[in-house]
């Protein structure tokens, strides 16, 4: 079984609540970094929750240390996003693999 980690982020000190995500400072660098993680197969799913101050990521990683090491290069880490939780997640049901 694949090992996944579920991360929760919240808005950091440089997040401007009056602006949409795409107008936040350093958005192009953050978006390019995250797109690269998707292309590399590290990020499986990700996005903001309804309040748009919390974000969830599902990543393919073996440990919390591996997650933190990979995300350390994110230009938003610590400024626009702060990690609040990283937990291992074992997938037991996966509808993505069901043939249509």
Automatic annotation (TrEMBL):
YCII-related domain mapped to chain residues: 18-89
A Pfam match: YCII
Record InterPro entries: Dimeric_a/b-barrel (IPR011008), YCII (IPR005545)
Family: Belongs to the YciI family.
Protein name: YCII-related domain-containing protein
Organism name: Candidatus Aeolococcus gillhamiae
